[in-house]
Specification:
Chain lengths: 159, 296
């Protein structure tokens, strides 16, 4: 099937098998080698991409669902100011994800930060998707709150 | 790498009348809800099931509706677990909301649909067991003599207690009874820890020194759920506060009944026992802390 989508800012028209997972499309058809591991839906959580701003496990999203969507992978996200906000929050809190889950966890944080979620129980409900146990939940909450604050200050300065 | 693979056609019916001709034409088509179960299939992609077409249900408005009255809540099978929590948290039985929250982060609960979790084959979910003890029922639409029929079945039929026609799960209905004690606990991940994960759901009314009308379900990723009237009776026959000896005896009986129903690993047996002990302990505490009404 033909699928039109925007991946990391590029408008693409791809001929794909309708049920091919987004994780494989990114690697095979677009050449974005972003995921450190692939468990094909067994819950490692290391395949997160943003689809229309929402964090998804890309191994669970079939080609027919990405038609008309905007997809952001860590490879383009790391060049943005929004990423800098999170990187600064990692420094401020003195905690960061390990290299295995760094990309996915950072994108997951971004999806929460972009919606401005600050309540502890709400943040906790958003987490819990990534298997890697390298981070303490309290640190994750502090990082998200810190990054929201950094972003707010940056936007105030800009305006 | 996947040359020569056939790409399944995607059908996206919007209303029921559009669905029947598609099913009639493609009786082996796969119903696609959230896709979490299908994408986990080992041969899901590249698919060996080249002839299968996909019927995507995400655009059927009727399957996304939610309604309630004083006696029940009813929702379409395409309602995601996340949507369910946001619309029904205040009215749904606590045992079910706890079960949904235990499943994982919102990335998952935004994708998993109620219908999908009932129909999951690759990894069974803990949701059907919880719905079964709540006396929930579900509607199946199926083709018979070239026409689409509809019938409601108790969810408890899903563990082999009755024969159900294969078809599309369209709605789920949960009666709203008053139960003053509800418990849910799961240990281990149903996705990552198939030989170790266990979920137990329990509802009852606590009255004086006994539990009345108890219903308990045990769920395991590869087996599905186990509910037995004999297990409920064994729990009902306990007098609370229950002594360590009585508790141990009941645990033994219940575990033996579970083992007869399905093969569970030693770790699952231990975990099941631990959760059961926790329930009995909690009931003991609740019953002991309830003020007794004495006569003068
Ligand atoms: S690759 Fe592990 S969850 Fe997607």
């Amino acid at each position: 099937m033909r699928v039109e989508c925007i991946v990391d800012g590029k408008t693409l028209s791809l001929s794909l098998n309708s049920n091919k997972p987004l994780s494989l499309i990114l690697a095979d058809d677009i050449g974005i080698d972003t995921f450190s591991s692939c468990c094909s839906g067994n819950g490692c959580g290391n395949c997160i991409a943003l689809v229309d701003g929402n964090a998804v496990l890309s191994c669970m999203v079939p080609a027919f669902e990405i038609n008309g969507k905007t997809i952001i992978t860590f490879e383009s996200f790391k060049k943005t100011r929004n990423y800098q906000d999170i990187a600064k929050a990692y420094d401020a809190v003195k905690a960061r994800p390990c290299p295995i889950c760094y990309k996915s966890r950072t994108l997951l944080f971004e999806s929460i930060i972009a919606r401005g979620v600050t309540k502890e129980d709400e943040i906790m409900r958003e987490l819990g998707t990534i298997e890697c146990a390298c981070m303490d939940a309290l640190d994750e909450i502090r990082i998200i709150r810190e990054a929201i604050e950094i972003r707010r200050r940056r936007r105030v300065r800009r305006s | 790498m996947y040359e020569g693979l056939r790409s399944p056609n995607i059908y996206t019916p919007k209303v029921m009348p559009e669905l029947s001709p598609i099913i009639l034409e493609h009786p082996n088509a796969t119903f696609w809800a959230g896709g979490t179960d299908l994408m986990r299939k080992k041969d899901g992609y590249p698919s060996k099931l080249g002839e299968e077409e996909i019927i995507y249900l995400g655009e059927m408005e009727e399957l996304r509706r939610f309604q309630r009255n004083d006696r029940m809540i009813e929702f379409g099978s395409m309602v995601t677990l996340d949507e369910f929590l946001s619309v029904a948290r205040s009215v749904a039985p606590e045992v079910l909301t706890k079960n949904i929250e235990s499943i994982g982060g919102r990335i998952l609960t935004k994708r998993i649909t109620i219908g999908g979790s009932l129909g999951a084959n690759v990894i069974k979910s803990s949701i059907p067991g919880t719905l079964a003890i709540l006396d929930a029922s579900y509607e199946v639409r199926f083709i018979k003599r070239k026409r689409l029929h509809s019938k409601w079945y108790p969810i408890s039929y899903m563990n082999g207690k009755g024969t159900i026609p294969t078809g599309l799960i369209t709605h789920v209905r949960i009666p709203l009874y008053e139960r003053n004690y509800q418990f849910f606990k799961s240990t281990g991940s149903f996705v990552r820890d198939k030989d170790g994960a266990v979920a137990v759901a329990f509802v009852a009314n606590l009255e004086q020194n006994q539990v009345v009308d108890p219903h308990i379900s045990f769920s395991y990723p590869e087996i599905g759920f186990i509910t037995l009237r004999e297990i409920d009776n064994a729990i009902q026959s306990l007098r609370f506060p229950s002594s360590p000896g009585e508790t141990e005896n009941t645990l033994k009986i219940v575990l033996e009944m579970i083992r007869q129903e399905g093969k569970i690993s030693p770790l699952q047996q231990e975990r099941t026992k631990g959760i059961l002990k926790e329930i009995i302990g909690e009931v003991n505490v609740k019953i002991l802390s309830t003020p007794t009404t004495g006569t003068k």
